[in-house]
Amino acid sequence: MSTRILMIFCDETDFWMGGEPLYAAIVRKLHRHGIAGATVLRGQMGYGVHRRIHKKGLFDETPIVILAIDEEKKLREMLPILVPMVNEGLINLVDTEVISFGADHGTNAETQVDEK
To answer: Which of 8, 49, 47, 4 lies closest to 25, judged by CA?
Structure first.
């Protein structure tokens, strides 16, 4: 099994249809398609292709990174869905080595979410 991390860079001010934050729409699509895991990270500061500094402030252009982990094949199957969603931002796929799933890797994820 070839495990990869899909990294998607966008801004907190990026939205999807219906006004949903882009990062939330992407995580919901990943979850719906059975991707093993996803996390959204909020950055302090950054810049991209336009060379404009993004940071939390008056316009709240906080950088966002979405990390998704699964088999390369499953992540590549998501690209035709995800690429059109990200108008401005970077999408890349990187190698990773999974060291541990943690002690509860065999439990039902839906139950864990509902209990919190």
So the answer is: 8
What crossing angle do the helices spanning 22-32 and 72-82 adopt, rounded to 10°?
130
Per-residue pLDDT of the chain (116 residues; tens, 9 = 90+): 799 999 999 988 899 998 999 999 999 999 999 999 999 999 888 877 777 787 766 566 788 999 999 999 999 999 999 999 999 889 999 999 999 877 776 555 453 443 33
User: In the chain, helix, strand, coil percent, each to 5?
Assistant: 30, 30, 40
**Residue 21 · residue 29 · CB < 8 Å:** no
The CATH number assigned to the domain holding 81 equals: 3.30.70.120
**Structural domain of 56:** 3-86
Q: How many domains does the chain have?
A: 1
Q: How many residues does the chain have?
A: 116
Q: CA 94, CA 17: separation in Å to the nearest integer?
A: 28
